[in-house]
Amino acid sequence: MSALPGPLRPEIEALETSGIQQVFDLGFGREDLIALWVGEGDQPTPAFICDAASAAMKAGKTFYSYKHGLPELRAAIAAYTSDLYGIDCAPERVSVTCSAMNGIMMVLQAVVGPGDNVAVVTPVWPNVMSAIRIAGGEVRAVQLDSLPDGGFKLDLERLTGAIDENTRAIFIASPGNPTGWVMSAGEQHAVLELCRERGIWMIADEVYARFIFDGPESGRKAAPSFLEIAAPEDPVIAVNSFSKAWAMTGWRMGWLTTPPSFVQTLGRLIEFNTSGTPHFQQYACLTAIGDGEDYVRETVERSRRGGELVFQRLSALPQVHIARPKGAFYAFFRLEGLSDSLGFAKQVLEETNVGLAPGSAFGPGGEGHMRLCFASSTQKLSQALDRLEPLLSKPLRSQA
Ligand SMILES: Cc1ncc(COP(=O)(O)O)c(C=O)c1O
Question: Ligand 1: residues whose CB is within 6 Å?
């Protein structure tokens, strides 16, 4: 057999398998495993959404579709966004994508090239950093401050200091994966002003928007969004997904909300990346967004219960530093003395058969932490905690 023809692009050669994937590869398929390492719940997509997909498929909705998405789906997403944030979002600003990941990739293709950089608030979902590198850009990590109570805070001066003449965008996920940090409206105002002044994009990853746990007190149905404070032509792109709130991770469906003047460019990128999203799946998304409010409320409440249980039990352990989760569906806890979270994730897997993600996978500020996804039943989480507690209570030296 002949060798492959020539070297690959250096950015591609340099890509590494994330620490989450490494632990996953080690443990996937094990019997009696409690997998809390990836970012999804333990429930399949609800039947009313699946039924809409199969009805559409049977009705012949199996052809190429509009590249920005079915007009009725764009209108439904715009109405949902307008209702959630009390704004007037035009359907033309919404483009349906094959997942949030695909949306992020296309946005980066549009705005980042070799020599450019993107300021990314970290710890963050590792795919974002890899996507920037694939586009040829440099990741400028802006670490959240780790607070003594286990929470996180954005240092606006640090973010401003990371920006130079080659910065094309700021990327912020709020509610954050893995931290559960939720950006305040005040912080969003300051960052938007920075983007306006410097002429750079704000890429706002809002896939966990519905997962906030102070909803009853704050009267909000979603975390503060850049869409609430930005004018349509501000340099803001909001990334969203059907994956989390409607339990549709395997469907690979999401959407972008962009300035009207960016829509045509995005249309070309959609054409050359995917040529649009699966036709019949768009009908399922239409049902999800139109009829799924009760389901979303129950899902968020289930995650709140899971997060509270994990917080109560982990915060009782002297070596563990954890704040009560504010958003998303992860406990990102600091373990005293931990300096090799990947090694520890492997040890946890071997000794307890529980899958956790290592903090180091999430970039600067992540080492020393472990991530546990609590979008599961309290019964399953209790079982996992029963297994984890003895190991997390031992002094770390004896675990090295
Ligand atoms: C912050 C963040 N953005 C985007 C995604 C990806 O969403 P999708 O499944 O739509 O690609 C994830 C998935 O875990 C995530 O954590």
Answer: 39, 99-101, 125, 173, 177, 205, 207, 241, 243, 249, 254
Nearest CA to ligand 1 atom 13: 39
Closest ligand 1 atom to residue 38 Cα is 14
Same domain, 257 and 319: no
What CATH number should be reported for the domain holding residue 26? 3.90.1150.10
Q: To test ligand 1's pocket by mutation, which of 37, 101, 210, 249 has the most ligand atoms within 8 angstroms of CB?
A: 101
Rg (CA), the chain: 21
CA dist 280 → 57, 68, 147, 276, 292 (Å): 5, 14, 46, 12, 18
Rounded Cα distance between 96 and 65, Å, is 11
pLDDT tens by residue, 281-331: 999 999 999 999 999 999 999 999 999 999 999 999 999 999 999 999 999
Residue 94 structural domain: 63-292
Q: Are residues 29 and 111 in the same domain?
A: no
The pLDDT tens digits for 111-149 are: 999 999 999 999 999 999 999 999 999 999 999 999 988
Report the CATH number at residue 108: 3.40.640.10
Q: 80 and 204 share a domain?
A: yes
Q: Are residues 231 and 130 in the same domain?
A: yes
Query: DSSP per residue over 287-304, as a string?
Result: HHHHH-HHHHHHHHHHHH
- How close is the Cα of 215 to the center of ligand 1, in Å? 22
The pTM (predicted TM-score) of the whole model is: 0.96
Residues 377 and 253 in one domain: no
Angstrom distances, CA of residue 269 to CA of 32, 87, 92, 100, 108: 43, 27, 16, 15, 11
Question: Same structural domain for residues 102 and 224?
Answer: yes
